[in-house]
Amino acid sequence: MINTYQTSMAPPPVPPRLAGSQPVLFPAPLPPRRHSKSLIRFLVAVVLLHLFLSIGGFIYLYYNDKMLSFQLPSRKGEEGQTAQFSSEKQDTSHKTLAQMAIFHPLHSSDQKSAPGYLQWNIDHSVLKNVAYYHNSWLTILEPGDYYIYSGVTFSRGDSERPLVSMVKLRKNENDEESVAMKAYCNLSSSSGSPSIRHLCTATQAAVIRLERGNQLRVWVQDLLLVNYEEGATTFGMYKL
Q1: What's this model's pTM, rounded to 2 decimal places?
Q2: What distances in angstroms separate CA 69 from CA 60, 62, 73, 78, 197, one per listed residue?
Q3: pLDDT confidence band for 15 (50 / 70 / 90)
Q4: Which terminus of the chain is less hemmed in, N or C, by CB atoms within 10 Å?
């Protein structure tokens, strides 16, 4: 084919030909890591160990808390009983009360029967916040409700009238006394064997509201008929 295209520009130069082809360089692969597998195994073992320890710790804490929840009520009960015993002991040590032991007066053989008031042995009696006045009166120091009791045992009877004992009360040492409680018992010397000792006890008890300065004592119709053995005749009170 004939080229009819003409131009005044010179044709582009032809690139020079190399004498020989140069080799193409590729990056060489890195050498294999020998310790990569052992490192991965070690990390997996650490993770698994940590997981097992966490699960074991959770199970231990769960059962330990469960055991403590069972033991806690009993411990609370023991602590409550201990506290209650301590409080009761403290209340007893500060409680207002009187427990009187009978005083045995000396009676002559020719002494005649006569009514009178029982006297108490202060050395063998218990008095807490209660005063003893003139050998027979118990004087109230703290106002409140008191449980008052009395038991008079008679070793001999009266052929003319029943045996009686009374707890008498007065507001203060200048006031007249009144009967707060009264009790009877019957002792017949004719019944039963004469060799058997016959006894009877006139017992009385009541709750009475008392004020500071009130006084109480026990009256009997005949002091010679009273049994003065230890524990046979009693008188006392305690504040509620």
Answers
A1: 0.59
A2: 14, 11, 7, 15, 64
A3: low
A4: N
